[in-house]
Design goal:
Blueprint (H helix, E strand, L loop, with lengths): L14 H6 L12 E4 L2 E4 L3 H9 L4 E6 L6 H9 L7 E5 L4 E6 L2 H10 L1 E4 L2 E7 L12 E9 L8 H6 L6 E5 L1 H5 L5 E9 L7 E6 L2 E6 L1 E3 L4 E2 L4 E2 L7 H6 L9 E4 L15 E2 L12 E4 L1
Antiparallel strand pairs: 1-2, 3-5, 3-7, 4-5, 6-7, 8-10, 8-13, 9-10, 11-12, 14-15, 16-17, 16-18
Length: 290
């Protein structure tokens, strides 16, 4: 019969087999299943994690410690701050918000200020990192570093950003440093890991020819290794005291806190000594562990 078409031959393959030969819908490469210590696992390389985190390099975590406004009010309040570009805000839990910026200048403005007031509620800002957990505050903080009597030919931006790399990652310089209107001191804001020991001087020069540059840390935050919070050392921590209640015995134990603690020394390096209460003077700063 004219126009009659023979029936099409049926493909004997199963539906699952056909799907296996379809092109991938996206360039995303699915990780194969694996095991870790006898349990199911998915393995990512350090390079892969770094690439995933790169998209979130301008992210700040905001923490409300004493209540918070609702999310709509937070967004409205942040929109009046005057950030240069757009940003998004989401809720991590009842105390933490995630703020993702498009511009580095907005990210630095938000993070380096450290403490904001949103609709009457204080909120502290922290740097986000791939190992961030809501139960632990970051060990990184933006800290202003002063380089007193730095020779003026080192006020070049490349030099100013090179010197602090020995202690952290430089973020910005203040206006007086940029314009050289205050040649007595250079001030650079740095991303520092405040849990690590920090040097009090840096060698500047070519080999043996150079000079030691003294480093002064302005308002260096403390960090508690017991509760993983900024703002106090472990021996000042209420959780530490609860966990060590009744120890040590045989009198009071007193820790003298020297000026080196403000220069970045770990609290664990501070020396302990037993002294009678009568020996305490107002000229010293002590903490009594009861």
């Amino acid at each position: 019969m004219a126009g009659h078409q023979p029936p099409e031959e049926r493909d004997g393959r199963s539906f699952a087999t056909v799907l296996q030969h379809q092109p991938a819908p996206s360039p995303c490469k699915i990780k194969p299943a694996a095991q870790f210590k006898g349990e199911p696992a998915v393995m990512f390389s350090e390079e892969g994690i770094t690439k995933l985190a790169a998209a979130f390099r301008f992210v700040v975590v905001g923490k409300f410690s004493h209540g918070r406004p609702n999310l709509d009010n937070i967004r409205k309040a942040c929109s009046t701050i005057g950030f240069a570009s757009t940003f998004t805000i989401g809720l991590l839990d009842q105390r933490h918000i995630l703020i993702r910026f498009c511009l580095e200048e907005d990210y630095l403005h938000c993070w380096t200020k450290g403490l904001w007031n949103i609709s009457g509620f204080p909120v502290r800002t922290f740097k986000w990192s791939p190992d961030f957990k809501v139960t632990s505050e970051s060990t990184h903080a933006p800290v202003w570093v002063a380089l007193e009597h730095l020779p003026i030919h080192f006020f070049d931006k490349a030099s100013l950003f090179s010197i602090p790399t020995a202690i952290g990652s430089p973020l910005q310089v203040d206006a007086a440093t940029a314009s050289l209107s205050r040649p007595s001191v250079a001030r650079i804001c740095n991303d520092l890991d405040i849990f690590k020991g920090l040097p009090v001087r840096i060698w500047n020069g070519a080999g043996v020819h150079g000079f030691w540059q003294r480093v002064t840390y302005e308002n260096l935050p403390s960090y508690c290794s017991t509760c993983n919070h900024q703002g106090h050392y472990s021996l000042d921590c209420r959780q530490h005291r609860r966990e060590n209640r009744g120890y040590p015995t045989g009198g009071e134990v007193v820790r003298a806190v020297g000026s080196q603690a403000q220069e970045g020394r770990n609290a664990a390096d501070d020396q302990w000594r037993s002294v009678p209460e009568s020996d305490l003077t107002m000229g010293d700063l002590y903490e009594v562990s009861l």
